[in-house]
Design brief:
Length: 300
Amino acid sequence: MRNKRFFIVLVGALIFGVLAAVSVSKYLSSAQAYTKNLNKIAVAKVAIPLGSKIIAEQIMVVQFPKESTPDGAFDSPEKLAGRVAVVNIAAREPITEARLAPEGTAAGLSAVIPEGYRAMTVKVDDAAGISGFIMPGTLVDVVVVIDPREGAGRQNPISKIVLQNIKVLANGQNIDKPKDEREANSVKAVTLQVTPEQAEKLALASSEGKLQLVMRNQIDQGDEQTTGVDKQGLLTGENAKPAPEPGSLKSEQPKQEAKPAVRRSAPVAKPAAAAPAPQPTPRASVEMIEGAKKRSVEFP
């Protein structure tokens, strides 16, 4: 009886031992397979600001699953040393080629200017700079107040939007957004991202007239064609429009019913009354009775 119990315990121990060995083997195999499915990629050890040159001390290497590895990732900090970031890179965020300027680019404002564009600085005051709320990355329109008839004796200035959907690269000497964008930052100059043709317009507008910047919604990048306004058009007044909700799109706003234009037609001339037809001259006639018949005979 005692041998039988010992035999049962021994068999049970062998079974549990085999199961444990199989489980450990499967775990080690899956861990080894998972390790083989990992890539080494470089991530930011600390936050890297926009326009700054990356140094090796700001980078660390971590293991990343192959199927989740972002395109353009780097596998060593040495390949990133000396490159310039064109966007803000947060800590623990992978660094990819799309977030960097081309090799050899100098740090600073020139690194964030796209190919084919230029950076141009214009002077602004507290009013033209929208009370300091124009931050890097903001989209603005440029309005100029100018007198096209200068020297003609009569002054009739015109206000006109000359540039639309222009990106602000820097306000003052700051090319990065502040931590709290609700706080205004008073500056004397704003740097805009423009094409060479837009730079020519902006240079002429700033020298011949007075500039005003108009802030846009980041989503609203449509093109609005306006005719401008002069003194005469300014005094014609404006119809009241319902104020839209903050941040709402133009397509979400109630449509204004256009009033039909009143056209004054020229008075229609009434046709002249037709002259009465002349009455025929009466002729002399004689009534003749022949039996039961009666007839009238006219004489010329």
